[in-house]
């Protein structure tokens, strides 16, 4: 199945500016996301300047930018500032701060003001239910369930998505997002789960594009050739 035909919105997830500018032009990319960890790894040292640079180019697709304060009052200030940068900004609010304190009050306040929020780092059904109650049904929003991290703990994430679909049924402008993709197959899992959006890092997007439409027979042959070529390059003998 090609990326164009997958029945789910693909959001490119990264902080490499060249990659962002490349992927946002692709017709099968419906939006963009980033976070402070990705930005730090990419060597970004000016958060606001980088955000504005992205928004200068990306005007017609949603862009999720994350707050990074640990105090809810300052999170609110950062959220309002990020939201004011452009009309296509979704402000990523973590489900809790680093002390484990729930951010539902902040989410409720921002959503009621018309700020488009993307509640991030959601892993449990309880967190989904709490945030569903906090969101204003009139305001566009996103709930990002970190399926990859759930799976890293040895837990099947798909039942969480089934629960979330039911919880969010009364929020017509809220979209369910499958986050922390680990492999190309997760994109297809996300579509199967009923999520409306899946975020995919640039490296996995590149892999998905490279392998799109390749049969398993061809993949098998390419794998055998790789082993053979590496043995020759290494000069192995028996």
CATH topology: TIM Barrel
Mean pLDDT: 96
Physical arrangement of strands within the biggest beta sheet: 1-2-3-4-5-6-7-8
Question: How large is the radius of gyration?
Answer: 19 Å
Distance between the termini: 42 Å
Number of domains: 1
Largest sheet, in brief, is:
8 strands, parallel, barrel
The ordered H/E elements are EHEHHEHEHEHEHHEHEHH
Helix-strand category: alpha/beta
- Fourth CATH level, the homologous superfamily: Aldolase class I
Keywords for this entry:
single chain; 238 residues; alpha/beta; TIM Barrel; 47% helix; 18% strand; globular
Structural features, described:
Helices cover about 45% and strands about 20% of the residues. It is α/β, with parallel strands linked by helices. The chain has a single domain (about 5-210), classed as Alpha-Beta Barrel (TIM Barrel), CATH 3.20.20. The protein has an eight-stranded parallel β-barrel, surrounded by six helices. Strand 1 (about 10-15), helix 1 and strand 2 (about 30-35) form a beta-alpha-beta unit. The protein is globular and about 70 Å long. The termini are far apart. The model has no long low-confidence stretch (mean pLDDT about 95).
What's this entry about, in short?
The protein is of the alpha/beta class and 238 residues long. It has a single domain (3-212), classed as TIM Barrel. The protein has helices at 17-23, 36-41, 47-57, 72-85, 104-112, 125-134, 147-152, 158-167, 184-193, 202-211, 216-234; strands at residues 9-13, 29-33, 63-66, 89-94, 117-122, 141-146, 174-179, 197-201.
